[in-house]
Design a protein that fits this description.
The complex is a heterotrimer of chains A (about 270), B (about 280) and C (about 300). Chain B is an alpha/beta fold and about 280 residues long. Chain B has twelve helices and ten strands. Chain C contains twelve helices and ten strands. The chains are: A mainly alpha (about 270), B alpha/beta (about 280), C alpha/beta (about 300).
């Protein structure tokens, strides 16, 4: 079901990770992504993977929820793996396998493929920790606050953040609606599964048109509801949830920087696999 | 005291199709008023005018002594008149209940500490505290509408309008929402205007206004309105089930007073079956 | 076409932490010719169940037959030819079992009312000539009480709410199903619209559609309109019968989280003080029975 898509889904729990300031979570996620992309050997992955596991453990998010987000992109990971294993070329690589269909597999291309797959996996898991432990509003609050400097050059930071949080809010609603419309048109004999690409695209019209119509209707109603609740742009607006750094953030930052140092040391002293 | 005074109000979205054609209505402080009428009779437009979402073309409308004809007053009016719309999915801005409830007071620039107090109050009054951290999309229709009411209470309005807020709910959800609203009316003395198609919800109101073709054709107690068969027929309304039964009995020559609810009807029927001493 | 099902199970969110049973062993028979009511509070499995009846949700476990179509779960692997056969069958099934979802007007999509109503006909019967399509479409539009000539070229989006709903229903009955399923058909309508829609359903039932199945929350409507009723609770059918049989046990109805029709409330409470009113639970019949009771006791007194 479409609803299984984990993106934008918040998992309520009381944990140190939930308590962290969204700004530090965003910055640390970026730091973590940098780490997984500079890693040069398996020791580095052990460290970053360890950091990830520790965070998952501390966040109290059940592993099942995490794995669902992997399920959604498992094909992309496999695809990257396969592409790299066959097409990654490097000088001085030792050929491991070169018979029949499976050709040109070298030690380098195998490592490279494993690395890329691991990076994607760690990337998705890391990002979903952020969305699972941070409510959409505090996530957008975090982004708004981080982008604040841009508002001095008249960049509409508040509006952008509001648009993001509304988009996140309506993802599940529109997913549900899509399912309902698909079911209704199937009941009227619509066939989404046969015919060539053009035919299939055309078959989607009876789904897309009602969906877009309804999205516009929803937007209009939401606009009214926001006006009725005295929305007046960012002018004189207060924020209830104040972002505040605390000890948890300090701990998170120190932990991440330690791992970063570890990764760099591993890269320098334990040799490069790729 | 009248909190709303409307005189000869006219409104249209486009020139050829007037929606309100000289509507007059007054609403008293603390009153529970129901507005009934066919689909497209102008009920929602009336709600939007009272709430200051739109301003009238001609006629007078004052809400809490603020003149709604002046566009610069509309924001002030919105602070005092909250409105719960029909579709529970389309009035929540934030994904998480708590974040949504504070949206109004944040807009008004209320200081943080006070928003916190208002949040607690609103959650408590609407019985939504238990899912304050839940995703809005995971709630039932009735729960969503209660959250919407909480979001409005946090603005501290004097008047609450329900614009067919129960029409997409199941009976349980309707019950939840109406009991919250009734409590607010009784306990907090909030003026409530409910626009509805459910005649059973109208029964407990102080007063009913029947809107037909852009004008209020009659106001009165629920009993006065529902006993007026000609009016009901002309405006496409129907009495609540209990009254339908007493009407059916009267047609068969069994004289029963017209009753609005089932308990009273039962008592009347029991009286009839008792033999005269 | 009779509908027969036994021990139907269905799980939502399989293999996740949110797993829940939507159907928990549904057994039910719906005979051809019924005006069948399905009641139960939200989340009792009604919607999941009706979507099984035209194959929108495939049977996971249990037996389900609709007329000659066997939708039951089989473990036997099917050949390509059999799969094709199955797909054709499914199309025929969906043609025979029309489904009107809640707020069906939100599925309108075509540029004109004519195109929208004929959508199903063209899908189900691709070999019809344009003239045949026109006749079926015209019939459907007129059957739901709209003026064909006036409305056929209009955009469905510029109609009034009530008209939109009628157009949506026309789009389902246009391909002449023998079973019509409607999920909360009266949701959001004003009293006049509601009465008119129930009248429309009865006239459809008399003239063109053999079996009508209605999911409704309004017990007073169900009591007044249906010939048989099934009560859903926690993914099971816990009782079936005529409205008379069902609503005579008002304690049971309230236990299921449903409201008791006013007529049933009165009958029950009168019975408790020794006054027996024999009626089904329509308003008119109740009034007649009560009037007769009064007459008879008066006679007895004389």
């Amino acid at each position: 079901m479409l609803k299984d898509v984990v993106f934008g889904q918040y998992y309520p729990a009381k944990s140190p990770v939930h308590r962290m300031d969204p700004r530090s979570k965003i910055v640390l996620l970026i730091l973590y992504i940098v780490m997984i992309f500079i890693v040069k050997n398996f020791w580095g992955f052990l460290l970053t993977g360890g950091l990830l596991l520790a965070t998952v453990f501390l966040s109290k998010v059940p592993l099942k929820s995490m794995l669902r987000s992997v399920k959604a992109i498992i094909f992309i990971i496999l695809f990257t793996f396969i592409i790299n294993i066959f097409f990654h070329k490097e000088d001085g690589a030792k050929i491991l396998w070169d018979v029949w269909l499976i050709r040109n597999v070298t030690d380098k291309s195998l490592y490279y493929a494993i690395f890329m797959a691991l990076r994607l996996l760690l990337l998705v898991l890391g990002s979903s920790i952020l969305t699972l432990t941070t409510t959409p509003v505090s996530l957008t609050d975090g982004i708004e606050s981080l982008l604040k400097p841009l508002s001095y050059i008249k960049f509409p930071v508040h509006e952008l953040a509001l648009i993001m949080s509304i988009a996140l809010r309506f993802i599940p609603t529109l997913m549900e609606e899509t399912e309902r419309i698909i079911a209704a048109q199937k009941a009227r004999g619509a066939d989404f599964e046969s015919g060539n690409l053009f035919k299939r695209a055309k078959a989607l019209l009876p789904v897309l048109i009602p969906l877009i119509t309804s999205a516009f209707r929803r937007a209009e109603e939401l606009g009214d509801a926001m006006d009725a609740r005295c929305y007046n742009g960012s002018k004189n607006r207060t924020k209830y949830k104040k972002l505040k750094f605390s000890l948890v953030d300090l701990f998170g930052t120190v932990l991440s920087l330690t791992v970063l140092a570890g990764v760099i040391l591993c890269n320098l002293y334990l040799g490069a696999t790729i | 005291m009248n909190v709303i005074e409307i005189k000869d109000l006219q409104f249209s979205y486009d020139e050829h199709q007037p929606v309100l054609k000289g509507l007059s209505l007054t609403v008293k402080e603390g009153e529970f008023l129901a507005v009934i009428g066919r689909n497209a009779s102008g009920k929602s437009t009336l709600a939007r005018l009272i709430n200051g979402l739109i301003s009238p073309l001609s006629g007078e409308i004052t809400v809490l002594n603020i003149d709604a004809r002046k566009k610069e007053n509309l924001y002030e009016i919105r602070k005092n008149v909250g409105i719960v719309f029909q579709n529970p999915d389309n009035q929540m801005v934030a994904s998480i209940v708590e974040d949504d409830v504070v949206f109004g007071p944040e807009n008004l620039g209320i200081p943080r500490e006070e928003i916190g107090e208002r949040l607690e109050f609103s959650l408590k009054e609407t019985g939504t505290a238990e899912f304050r951290e839940s995703m809005a999309s995971k709630l039932s229709g009735g729960q969503k509408q209660r959250v919407a009411i909480a979001g409005i209470l946090a603005i501290k309005p004097k008047i609450l309008i329900l614009d067919e807020s129960t029409s997409m709910l199941d009976p349980r959800g309707r019950e939840e929402v109406m009991s919250v609203v009734k409590k607010l009316n009784r306990k907090e003395k909030m003026t409530v205007i409910t626009i509805t198609h459910y005649m059973d919800e109208v029964v407990d109101c102080d007063r009913v206004a029947v809107l037909n073709d852009g004008v209020i054709v009659k106001t009165g107690t629920p009993k006065e309105i529902f006993s007026d068969e000609k009016l009901l027929e002309a405006t496409g309304m129907e009495p609540p089930v209990s009254m339908k039964i007493s009407l059916a009995l009267n047609k068969l020559g069994v004289n029963t007073p017209l009753t609005l609810d089932k308990q009273t009807l039962l008592n009347e029927l029991l009286k009839l079956t008792k033999k005269p001493e | 076409m009779d509908i027969f099902c036994k021990d139907l199970y269905y799980q939502y969110n399989k293999n996740t932490e949110f797993v829940s049973y939507a159907l928990n062993g549904v057994s039910l028979t719906i005979k051809e010719g019924e005006f069948f009511g399905i009641i139960g509070h939200t989340g009792s499995g009604k919607s999941t169940f009706i979507q099984h009846l035209n194959g929108l949700i495939p049977v996971e476990q249990g037996i389900l037959t609709v007329g000659d179509y066997d939708l039951s779960k089989t473990d036997v692997k099917k050949s390509k030819k059999e799969k094709k056969q199955l797909k054709d069958n499914l199309k025929n099934l969906r043609r025979s079992v029309g489904m009107v979802f809640q707020y069906p007007e939100y599925q309108l999509f075509a540029e004109t009312v004519f195109d929208d109503v004929s959508f199903g006909i063209k899908n189900f019967m691709p070999n019809l000539s344009p003239e045949e399509v026109r006749i079926l479409t015209k019939n459907a539009i007129e059957t739901v009480g709209l003026d064909y000539e006036k409305i056929k070229d209009k955009s469905p989006f510029e109609l009034s709410g009530g008209q939109k709903r009628r157009v949506a229903i026309a789009g389902v009955i246009a391909s002449r199903p023998s079973i019509l399923i409607l999920d909360e058909p009266c949701a959001g309508l004003d009293p006049t619209g509601k009465t008119a829609l129930w009248n429309l359903l009865h006239s459809l039932h008399e003239r063109v559609i053999k079996t009508i199945i209605v999911v409704s929350h309004d017990m007073n409507d169900v009591a007044s309109n249906c010939t048989s009723v099934a009560v859903f609770n926690r993914g099971k059918v816990i009782k079936t019968g005529t409205p008379k049989e069902l609503f005579s046990d008002s304690a049971f109805i309230s236990d299921c989280g449903l409201e008791v029709p006013v007529t049933a409330y009165l009958t029950e409470n009168l019975k408790n003080v020794g006054i027996k009113i024999d009626s089904d639970y329509t308003i008119n019949r109740f009034a007649e029975s009560f009037a007769n009771y009064l007459k008879n006791t008066e006679k007895a007194d004389l």
